[in-house]
Structure formats: C-alpha cells, structure tokens
Amino acid sequence: MSTLQIRDLRASVAGTQILHGVDLTIGSGEVHVVMGPNGAGKSTLSSVVMGKPGYEVLGGSVTLDGTDLLALPAWQRAQAGLHLVMQYPSEVPGVSLDHVMHEALTARGRATEGLDELLEAEAARIGFAPELLHRALNVDLSGGEKKRNETLQLAVLQPKFAILDELDSGLDIDALRDCARRVEALTNDTGMGALVITHYNRLLEALRADVIHILVKGRIVASGGPELADQLERDGYAAYVPVAEDEPATSGSLDDLFAL
Amino acid sequence: MPVFSPDAVRASAPPDLDRRLAAAERAAAAAMPSAEEEVWRYSRIGELDLESFVPGRARTTVDAPTGVQVAHGGELGERIDDGDAVDLFHELNRAFMDAVVLSVPRGRVVEQPVVVTHRIDAAGTAVFPRLIIDAAEDSELTVVEQFVSPDGLVALVVPRLEVDVAPAARLKYLGVNMLGSSTWSIAHQRALGARDSTTLLATVALGGDYARVRTEARVTGQGASTRQIALYYADDTQMHDFRTLQDHAAPRTHSDLLFKGAVQDHAKSVYTGLIKIRHDAKGSQAFQTNRNLTLSSGAWAESVPNLDIETNDVKCSHASTVGPIDEEQRFYLESRGIPPEIAERLVVLGFFDEVLEQLPVGPLAAQLREQVGAKLRRRAS
Q1: Which residues form the ABC transporter domain (chain A) (predicted)?
Q2: pLDDT in tens, B354-380
Q3: What fold, for A3-90+162-259?
Q4: Are B74 and B101 in contact (CB under 8 A)?
Q5: How large a percentage of chain B has pLDDT more than 90?
Q6: Distance in Å, alpha carbon of B366 to nearest chain A alpha carbon
Q7: Is some CB atom of chain B closer than 8 A to the CB atom of A93?
Q8: Which end of chain B has the least Cβ crowding within 10 Å, N or C?
C-alpha cells in the first residue's frame, strides 16, 4: 500500500502564483479526479508534481511513501514510482518507443527480457498499431495514437501513481474508451493510484472515480464522491467561483498557455 | 624558393607537367584568401600558414568492384578540367594533385560501393587528392571517400571532387572526414547532373581541426535532381565549415538539402547555403534545411541560408535552426525515469538518425553512429 501525499502545495509560473495551497492524499488503487475551470491550475499541479522545468515551488510538500519528491529531479521522481501522462506528448525525432521503454526499464534496474512481446501484447490490448512501436515517439501520430502510446507506456512501466493530464483531450471516443479501460485495469490489477485531471465526465464512464476534487484558483474548494462530477456537468462551476472577484484578464488562459 | 612554387612541381617530375606548371604559376600569382571575402566569411583561413607545409602525398587506396574502371595520375591526359578555377586552393590542387578517376560505363549498374581511402601520416605535409567520378548514361554507382589521419598530426588536406552524372545515371557519393584533431582540410566539390540524372552527395564530418567543405551541385539537364545531406559534429576546439550551392540551370529540376550538425565544448560550425534558380529553370523545386544543436554553452554555430531566384513558377523553401537540446524532448524522456545523460544521448542520436538512415552505405552508418555516441560521452560537462 503506497501513498502520494500533496500538502499545502504552492507554486508559481513566470512570477505569477498559480497554486495557493493544494492538499491531496491518494492511496494505492484509488482514482482521484481533479476538475475545475480554465486557469484553475490543473496542468500546473501535474507539472509541478512531476518536476517539469519552468515552475517555481513556493512552499508545501509532495511525498511518495515518505520520500520527498520535490527534492528530486523528474527522472528520479519517475524512478520513485510517479508517472505523468502528458496532455501534449512531445515529439522526439529519431527516438523510438521501444528504445525508450528499454532505457526506462534498464535505468530502473528492471529486466528487459520479453519486452518486445510485452509491447506487442499491450499494443494489441489498447489498439495501438504495432509498427508504431518502432517509430519515433509521437512523430506524425494522431491525437488518439499519442494518447494510446502514453497509456501503453503506463502499462509497461507500471508506476505506483500516475498523473493523467487531460488524457481525454484530442482523441476520439473509441480511443478514449480504450485508454480509460486500460487505466482502470491497472488500478485494479497493479494497485496503481491515479490523479486524473479532466474537464469531462466522459472519461469517468470507463474509469471509475473514487473522489472528485474541484480546483478553483489554485485551491481545492470541494471534494466528494462521483456524484459531484454529475452535479458539475449539470450546474457548472458557478457555485464554486466567487462572483465578487473578477479574474484578471490573463489568468483565464494561463493554464493553456503554459500547457503548450 | 617558395614551397608551392612551379619549381616545386618540377622537382617532383609528375606526368602532365606543363599544365601543372601553369596552375602553379597561377597559384603563385593568386592572393591568399581572407575572411574579409564573403565566401570565406566566418572561416579560420586567417590562421593558415601555407608556407609551414611542404607538398606531400596521401597514401590512397581504391577498392573497386567489377564494372568500375579506375585510372590513376598519369593516365589522365585531357580529362582534367583546368577551367573554372575558384581560388588558390583549386590551383594548388591542380598543380600538386594525386588524381583518381572512377568511371562506370553506360547502362552498368554497380551494386557494391567503391571505397577510396586517403591516409595522411607525414607531419607537416600538404596533400592534394582529386577524385573524378564519371557516371555514364543510365549507369548506377556508389562511392565512399574517406579521409584519415592520426590525432595530433599537423597536416593540410586539400581535396577536390568532380562528379559528372550523365543522363539518367544514378550516383551516390559519401565523403567521410575521420581526420585527426590537428589536421586541416579545405575541400571543394562540384557535381554536374545531366537530364533525368539523380545525384546524392553525402558528407559526414567528425574529425579535423578546421575542416571546410564547399559544394556546388549543379543540375544542367531537365528533370535532373540532386540531394545533399550532411552530419557534422565538432567538439573540443574543432571547427566545421560548410558552404553549399544548389544551382538550377535547367527546367523542372529538383534539389534537396538536409544538413544537421552539433557543436560542443568550444567547437564551432558554420553553414552557409545558397539556392540559385537560373532564368531557364522554370518549374524547378529546391529545398534546404539546416539544423544545429549547441550542446555546450561555450560552443558556437551559425547558419546562413540564402535564395537567389531569377524566374517565376518555382517552389523553394529553406529552414534553419540553431539551439540547445529541446527542453520538452528532454523532459519527456526524463519523466519516463531516464537519467539526463542518457536522455541527451537519445535526443542527439535521434537528431542525427534522420541523416544516418539516408547514408548510402548501411554498415558504415552503424559505425558512424557509434562514433557519434563516443563523441557525446567525451563532452566536458
């Protein structure tokens, strides 16, 4: 049983504070969903927890079974058991998926025998064309292929915790179902915990959420069961966004800007 | 007497003496180029003390499969083109050259590559290899030319390549610079492509102290195409200098260029490329891409693309970039648990793979990939 614990996490991008104290505790096998309006800090949260350059941590802590993740570079956070499924996976010309998985397992001191067979099997399971295993990462892939690729890596590396940053953006309904089912199976079979960032309920049809959190202006303002997502679908975020306070003109799109 | 004088030519009593003497006379009268001239801009030509070298010879071997005619020095007769002198180094090459001529007859397809290797092993010498390739009509040929010297050997190589690709012939050439860290190279290449011919000019430059390759690829017949590719990677205080011309002199011709380089430590590189579409070359297409990775803060790369288009109805584009390893690519790999030095190696090898996979000689590409990897590991952090 593992625990990913985020405590009072505060962070800024380019001098603007985005996260104002986020608290989340995720256990093995649990699926926590973070929803929120644009600019709430959802993508910033995932980037800061994974250790993407360009973000400044102002305070708070992120620990995985007591290990201080914020003190580690991204690659060591990954080796500690964290994985980020990116909203916009980078193209890496000339570097193939199978090669990267080989290096990623080797760097963890894990065996690579049978990797080719595993990749083939996972590709088949998730509807990823097997020839793409040997092609450059994400180069010339469709939105759906990119997200299947990301999900496949999750299945090969089997992290303790996965952050899914808008797994549901840029892919069609079939790909979404395939990816969500695979993640759901990993939470059941390997006890992977998941922090799922999304705008839409559709993802949650195949991926069963345990807790829904609502993130507004860099703080979690409400948490509840799956019914909270249904309520948001119906009523929107109006109840959670303070009316009196006008958002500064830039902050609404900040998330999207930096996510690119 | 000046070292590269007509008397020096006479002293070596080569065949073809009169014309060599004439070239030596012209060389004696020619000025030493300087970086003030546009064509030598950014170069290290000002550091070259020609008089500190003496004329010498490389040990040249030619490994040619059946079907290729190989001629050396004395048998050349009238085949050497004396016109079109470009500079002092051209004249010096004409005066002191060791020439090899490769010819493939009409209609002949030669599957195996010809391998020409020049080894330079005498310190203080300047050597002048010339390689002439004649691909007759509808023939097919692949040639690899390698330049090798030991590390620390102070020497100067002035190679010249002349390629003549007859109608519908297919020629692939790969030049490999594996020179030692103290050897200079000032190379000149010229390729002429006749109607419906296809020419590939590939360069891999890993060695040398200062190594320059100037290439003119001219398509002279309708439907001819040329492709130029290069991989260059300089470390320590090396400098690689490329100057390319894609010259379209006939209608519906095609040229494409992909040069990818990296610099690390205090190394430098320069790429200057011109696409020239002459008045008659309607319906032509020309593309040029130069990408450079700067792997250390003390390294420097420059990229200067140019277009000179004299007619309408053409399709041209050029792209050039200079910069460090892409942060997003690095983070993507690191977020998979791959340590930074391995992530960088993957990105750099991936960057070069686009060129390596287009090299005409597969087994050599694997060996060159190894050398690129070794160079990356030597990077001072």
Answers
A1: 4-242
A2: 999 999 988 899 999 999 999 998 886
A3: Rossmann fold (3.40.50)
A4: no
A5: 86
A6: 14
A7: yes
A8: C
